[in-house]
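Readers outside the structure-tokenisation community will struggle with the description of the input data as it stands. Showing the layout once, in full, would remove most of the difficulty. For illustration, here is how one protein appears when written out as sequence plus structure tokens:
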Amino acid sequence: MDYSSPPPPMGGKSPEAVMEQMQTQLAQAYAEEFIETLRVKCFDKCITKPGSSLSGGESSCISRCVDRYMEATGIISRALFQQQR
């Protein structure tokens, strides 16, 4: 075995491959957190009497809640990206 050369980075993966894997994992974690936040916020706001099905009012409340949250997240994201430029 040749111990004179350094070991390959990250188990033989290139730095680009490691970065891509980290970005994928970060995106997945963000998506999971986003969905969990939506679930908690919109459920708490819209579901007053949990049951086996949603009422019409609960369904439309959840739809509006998700739409507003996604719109607000988009506005915030665009503002943050513009500040970084």
Q: What stands out?
A: The longest helix spans residues 15-46. The radius of gyration is 22 Å. The chain has a mean pLDDT of 86.
